[in-house]
Design brief:
single chain; alpha/beta
Length: 389
């Protein structure tokens, strides 16, 4: 099932960005995602903590000179005063700047789309949660982009409909190899901040990709973990944060789970995979081949469900753009999050509630992610002691 869509005639949403200037990877991804369904117009930015780079980045991206800022607090105040000011901001900075930037825009009444993980620590995450409670008109989204993949939406719908029965097991893995050596010591920007506790937080691999795995497992299964036992390891000599993670999970319904996340596993590029097993059947999904979902009803042959193909339902169809056989993946997953947020913003513009099918990760996902990181760190420090989330 394919449902192409365009809401361009209702007016594009004015978008700003904090971070994402020259040399940044994720900022370009967010800008591409915002444009994919023609929902947003990028009009303002504080694109770097370096004033010179911020101005050069803004000019390079075609922003008007008076919409290029060197400080995000100045940007929040100035844009809130403008009749044509931004309606939403994307925060694509290293982790330590997520909460300060988000707070500035929330207090200015501007919606926020924030990269993950949510904060530097759980205390900060809860501070942001309280701020949002005081500003209920502000929409907040967290870009766990894998939750936007069509076959993840289909898997979630299958679990919710009871097709797997009672969930017993949830397994996730996310191996990479890019930090197998001390890349951060070469000056590589992404490696530098991701291995720096002051900018990344207490979790390295567990925060960077472990949170993606945990969020996806919970999102698809509909479960929340009550406690965990974690082993965080730093294999590269001199590295300040973990680069390999093993976690056992006990979910609140009695189900069990496991996570392996690694950034030192040679031969793995971006090997995110989840498996969900219940009393009636199981599901398997792999990010490297995201247009396919394997479903096995107990006692029956394994079945392949393809994005846009036979057996793919409306939950996947509403976030599908092209017919089966034409790959959709990483950028489209980001774009689906952006477009769902756009639908919520446009409903807010009209004084209405968004359609009940509109879904995107929010503050609850962010707080849960930070609780997961903190519990993993505590557990590992106590030799894998079972720790409540």
């Amino acid at each position: 099932m394919v449902s192409g869509r365009s809401d361009a005639n209702t007016g594009r949403i004015r978008l700003g960005m904090v971070g994402g200037g020259q040399g940044a990877f994720i900022g370009a991804v967010h800008r591409l995602a915002s444009r994919m369904d023609d929902q947003y117009e990028f009009v303002a930015g504080a694109l770097s903590a370096d004033a010179k780079k911020a101005k050069a980045s803004g000019a390079e991206l075609g922003l008007a000179p008076d919409r290029i800022y060197t400080d995000f607090r100045e940007m929040a105040k100035a844009e809130a005063r403008r009749a044509d000011g931004i309606e939403v901001v994307s925060i694509v900075t290293p982790n330590h700047m997520h909460v300060p930037a988000a707070l500035a825009f929330i207090e200015a009444g501007i919606h926020v789309i924030c990269d993950k993980p949510l904060a530097l620590n759980l205390k900060e995450a809860k501070q942001l949660e309280k701020a949002l409670a005081k500003h209920p008109h502000v929409i907040f989204a967290l870009t766990h982009n894998y939750s936007g993949y069509p076959m993840i939406r289909h898997a979630k719908a299958m679990v919710k409909a009871g097709e797997l029965g009672e969930i017993r097991l949830v397994q996730g893995e996310y191996p990479q190899d890019w930090l197998t050596t001390a890349l951060e010591k070469t000056g590589q920007k992404q490696a530098e901040w991701r291995t720096d506790p002051k900018r990344s937080g207490a979790g390295g691999c567990v925060g960077d990709i472990g949170t993606h795995t945990y969020q996806l497992m919970c999102d698809v299964s509909g479960l929340a973990a009550g406690e965990l036992s974690a082993d965080l390891t730093t294999f590269v000599k001199g590295r300040a944060l973990d680069d390999n993670v093993h976690v056992m999970l006990r979910f609140n319904n009695g189900a069990r789970g496991m996570i392996w996340a690694s950034q030192v596993a040679p031969g793995n590029e971006n090997g995110l995979k989840i498996r969900v097993y219940g009393t009636k059947g199981g599901l398997e999904w792999t990010q490297a081949d995201p247009n396919y979902l394997w479903y096995t009803p107990f006692g029956e042959p394994k079945r392949l469900i393809t994005r846009g193909g036979a057996g793919s339902g409306p939950a996947a169809g509403r976030v599908t753009r092209v017919p089966p056989g034409h790959p959709e993946g990483y950028l489209e997953g980001f774009a689906n999050v952006y477009t769902e947020v756009a639908r919520a913003i446009k409903a807010k513009r009209a004084g209405k509630k968004p359609d009940k099918d509109v879904a995107f990760p929010g503050i609850a996902d962010g707080v849960a992610g930070m609780a997961f990181i903190e519990a993993c760190v505590k557990s590992s420090e106590k030799n894998g002691k079972w720790t409540k989330l």
